[in-house]
């Protein structure tokens, strides 16, 4: 493009109005563009132009040179300062020289292997002693290394190829609870528990649900508290355990600190619960039954949305009066049977004939009466199970839940 015939600002304005961007070919280097920019600035005497005309020249240079606005500002400033537009940067010819060689990195890995990877400070002292006291010339450079850079060398691929340490998950050393899965042996009363959090909103915690499920019968109790500290959790947990019709024999939880503490242990001792177990490392199925009920019961009926903590008493009353009776007396569950094939492998099947409510499963157990709490009979429980039909219980639950959520919504708007 021959643009030397553009000598006035009016011609530049007409050019910009009728011309699209001009793209430089790849073979033209920065020196050619710099020369073009200097010629334009000189030809139009950029230094003496008024402000609007200077802006027009900048737009013209941006469209014809392909440089960004910031780059053009730097080049124009250079022209105004010294009358030239030249390249001031240069690509680096070589990187920084390495102080520590691959042999040093390998020597560091060997030293760590010998001493079982001590701290950086102790390792530095070992290498100083190796060079200064024991005259090992291999440590000449490593003896002067800083502790911070020693950790940098430990991250290098050459170090990792020679020195990799694999450690197993370390068990928690809290003496409360036995680390194993429950072993109910077809006896009711062995509970699995988990905590379900009802969402955060604007950094404010919601309330918490405690979900307890019997291993054998799937008899379930859901309770709600404001927080999971002992002042709020222990009273609700005691009420929840008392709601089960059979004697509680085992109490199994994950490794959360809300349960693994002396307050819960004292409560279980007071209730004469024999076993207190907790999940093992790398055994995700130890508490899988409670986890599955979190989604199938708690989340399905109470959702995921944030519920403020001040409504914990209302939600807990809903759990006690509507949700738990429906789940235990009117909601059928699948129960497994174990089949051993010709190769001796055991597989679980869930036949339709074994689908029943948790209460029906409890009644079907051999000698079920001996597991009932004192003062509770199957006659009393049958009345609870047959007072209303399954559909009536579900309709009653849905109406109570709608009323509960409307109350929470109205009170939340009033408080806001």
Distance between the termini: 68 Å
CATH domain fold name of the largest domain: Nucleotidyltransferase, domain 5
**What's the CATH superfamily of the largest domain, by name?**
Ribonuclease H-like superfamily/Ribonuclease H
Looking at the overall shape, the CATH architecture of the largest domain is 2-Layer Sandwich
Share of helical residues: 40-55%
Helix count equals 15
The poorly predicted ranges are: none
| Number of DSSP-assigned strands | 10
Listing every helix as H and every strand as E from the N terminus to the C terminus, the arrangement reads HHHHHHHHEEEEEEHEHEHHEEHHH
* Main beta-sheet strand count, sense and barrel state: 6 strands, mixed
How many separate domains?
Answer: 3
Shape: flat
Relative strand content = 5-15%
CATH class of the largest domain: Alpha Beta
**What is the gyration radius calculated from CA atoms?**
38 Å
Provide the fold topology:
Elements: H1 9-18, H2 30-43, H3 51-65, H4 69-82, H5 102-115, H6 120-132, H7 147-154, H8 157-162, E1 178-179, E2 190-197, E3 200-201, E4 204-205, E5 208-214, E6 220-225, H9 230-242, E7 250-253, H10 262-270, E8 275-278, H11 288-302, H12 312-329, E9 337-340, E10 346-349, H13 358-364, H14 378-386, H15 390-415
Parallel strand pairs: 1-8, 2-7, 7-8
Antiparallel strand pairs: 2-5, 3-4, 5-6, 9-10
